[in-house]
């Protein structure tokens, strides 16, 4: 059995939410016993109608639908696009859009990573079907956003789903045969898939609110792969992996900042020390162990440093933009666990991250995601913790700019 990368459950859940309201349930059909049905149907020993991306059984109980088996007579290349004129034109248009618009926006800045995403990545896709289909999957989402502000209403969504599934299959094959020579290709494919997961946050249902745990865990696990890739590459500075890591400094050049802030936490110390009077509050600092304390202080300290530098930074915007988006990469995994537990303090800190995302709202793959998440978290929190949401809500309503 071929396992599917963890990201697929997240994407399937997004697809189910997009389609559940619009799909009509017909008369129940009887099918032959399926050995390639979805994972849940096989576990429950019930018949799967094999509807993709979400079978009717999973749709009915609102569970993620994961297809992790292929028919015995079906190769990994099954489902490849037919060689028709229309399909070739579609892929030519998608590649052109990637090179002229999508790639440059993903790169953030021309000084460092433009060469990686606009020049090197398309060339490397000639040797990697996983990377090639990831390009098409991301770019079809970009085209969908250009056509309609709501991705789920775009005709490009069907093409996106198909390319994404193909990208999963080929990417998994490359992961199994990982080597130093494939490190860059696999790293870039992973990056594009992670971008897809982030874009789909703008389509997710926020009432009742549940934090985007799948996306956070996907991004956190990708950080481990980056580390593996760097260990395989070694000290070769010419690789795309090394160039990207060099373009994302965790500390900004002090020459570009008006002031030096050795400890970024004081401005947000009240979030770390807040104590609710609710007797059911299980997040009192008095009871924290070292792991919880390190997770909270590290997350808030990192975000606090960005907030403070933003208002006094005169350098190129690329490094600070990248510093924002790598937060889920560098944050302690224990913090993500605290978010998953629904701890109000962790959600307040997460809201501060999404407030920073508002700084990037002019990018097509960001849009109003930051504002949506901040407002949803604020509405979800108990009254005491809502009092700590003033700063993120202010940014959502008023915005802020980085001094140039």
Automatic annotation (TrEMBL):
Keywords: DNA-binding, Membrane, Nucleus, Transcription, Transcription regulation, Transmembrane, Transmembrane helix
InterPro entries: Zn2-C6_fun-type_DNA-bd_sf, Zn2-C6_fungal_TF, Zn2Cys6_DnaBD
Lineage: superkingdom: Eukaryota
Protein name, per record: Zn(2)-C6 fungal-type domain-containing protein
Membrane spanning residue stretches: 346-366
Pfam families from the UniProt entry: Zn_clus
PANTHER family linked: STEROL REGULATORY ELEMENT-BINDING PROTEIN ECM22 (PTHR47657), ZN(2)-C6 FUNGAL-TYPE DOMAIN-CONTAINING PROTEIN (PTHR47657:SF14)
MF annotations from Gene Ontology: DNA binding; DNA-binding transcription factor activity, RNA polymerase II-specific; zinc ion binding
SUPFAM superfamilies xrefs: Zn2/Cys6 DNA-binding domain
